[in-house]
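Q: What would this chain look like folded?
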Amino acid sequence: MAEDWINKLYFGDNLDIMRDYIPDESVDLIYLDPPFNSKATYNVLFREKNGTESGALIKAFDDTWQWGHESEQAYHELVTQGSKKLADLIQAMRSFLGTNDMMAYLVMMAIRLVEMHRVLKQTGGIYLHCDPTASHYLKLIMDAIFSVHNFQNEIIWCYKTRPQPRSRFGKKHDTIFFYTKSATYTFNWEKALRTLSQETIKKYRLVDETGRLYRLQGRGITGSPIRSAKDVNPEWEKTHPELVVRDYLDEKQGVVLEDWWTDINIINQAAAERLGYPTQKPEALLERIIKASSNEGDIVLDPFCGCGTTVAVAERLGRKWIGIDITNLAVTLMISRLEDTFGPDLTPYEVIGDPKDLSGARALAEQEKDGRYQFELWALRKVAARPAQDTRGADKGIDGYVYFIDDDSGRAKKIVIQVKSGKVNFGYIQALKGAVEEEKAAIGALITLQEPTRPMKEAAAAAGFYVPEHFPDKHYPRVQILTIEEILNRKQLEYPRVAPEVTFKKAERKKKGEEPEQGQLF
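A: My prediction, written as C-alpha cells:
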C-alpha cells in the first residue's frame, strides 16, 4: 500500500469501505468530524456566479439517527464479536439510554471506531472532533477501543460565534479527543508551537559578546532558582559558572501549545475559504493537527470527509490521503475543491464507488436507501452541474444547473437539466422545453438512464439552436438528450466554453507547502 500509492476518494458507507479496502495498520493519522446527533437536516447553500445570491439549498444529509434494523445489527456485532470492555460498555449504555436516537448514534459510531483502530498504525494517532451533544459518551467508547492509557488530550477548540439566547451561557467551543494506537507515536511538538509573548521576550535582557540576547537559568545569589534579573548580579555568571546556564532568545522556537486553542476561528460567511458546506472546518485547524501528528508521505484518513478540508490540507502538506463520504454531493464538492485549489499540481487520485458502467449506474439508482437521489447527484456531477432544490423543497421539474459566460457582460447564461432514471417518453421533452422558457435558460438538457424514443429525439431537434451573440457561427442544440451510456463514454453537454467554469464557487488556488497567511490562521 506504499510504493504504488494513489490518493483515493471513496463514495459510500465508511464502514463498508474500511472493511473492504483499507488493510490493517496502514494509516498514520485519522481525523473525523462525524455528524452529531442534533436531529438537523444539513443543507448546502450555493452562490450563483452571475452576481446574485442563490436561494438554492441542497440537502446534504440528515443528521438524524434512529434505532432500527441497522443499529440493532451493529449492536449485536459489537456485543458478540467486540472486545469484552466494549461489549460491557455498549450493553451498559443501552441499559441506561434505551433504544433511542442517541443509542443508535453511539452504536453506529462505535462499530466504525473499531475499524479505525484496526487500520491505524501502531505509531498512529486519531483525532475525534465532537461537540457536547455526545462527547461524554464518545470518550467512554474511545477509552474502551483505544485504551485509557492511549488517551493523550482533550483539546478544547474555542471560537467566536454570534450572540446566543440569554437562557444559558453561550456555546463557544468544540471538543477534539486525541488518542494514539500505542505509547510510541508520531508527535512533532516543534510543529505545534505558540509564539513567545512580549512579557517573555522582555526577560531576555542580557547581551553576550556577539550581541545575542539571553537570560540566565539555574541558581541565583540566594541559592533559589533564578526568576528575574534581580536574582543575579553582573558578576554572578563569571564567579559561579557552574550554577547558571545561558538561555538564548534566538534559540527559542516558541512554546508547546496547550490543549485549549483560541487562535483559530470558525470560517465566517465572507471568507474566501468558505465553500458553503455546513460543517466545514477551517484549514488552519487541520493544518495544526496534520503537522503535529504526521510526516510528509504519511497516509491521512478522513472517513467523514464532507467538503474535503482534511484531504485538501493533506495534499498541500505533502501527505498521502484517503477521503470517504456517503453522499455524492460531498464527493462532487471535494473533486471541485481539489482541482480548483491545486490545478495541474494536484497529485493523481481516483474516485472509488462511482458507477463505471450501465449496470453500476442502474444499481446506484435502485439501491434501497436514497438511490434515485444519489443517482441524480452522480449524473449531475458527471456533467459538472450543481443540484437544484429551492428552500421550499420543490425543484420545479429541474434537477440541476450549469452556468457559462460567452460574452463580455459578465452575466452567466443558464442550462437547466433534468435527470431521469426510469422510463422516459415524449412528455419529458415537452416539460423540459417549458422549463427552459420559464427559467429564461439558454439550453435545456435531459440526462436519462434509458434510451430515448424516436419522438423524443425529433422533439429535441425541433427546438432549434442557441447561437451566442458574439459567435454567430457557433450553434448549440437548444434541447439536448444525453444518455448515461454516452456520458460514461465521455460525451458532454454542448455549450460555449470560452470562459472559466462558473457553476460552483471556486476554492482559492494554492501551492503545495504554502503556509496560510497570518490572517487565515488568526
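The domain at 7-192+257-352 is CATH 3.40.50.150 (Rossmann fold).
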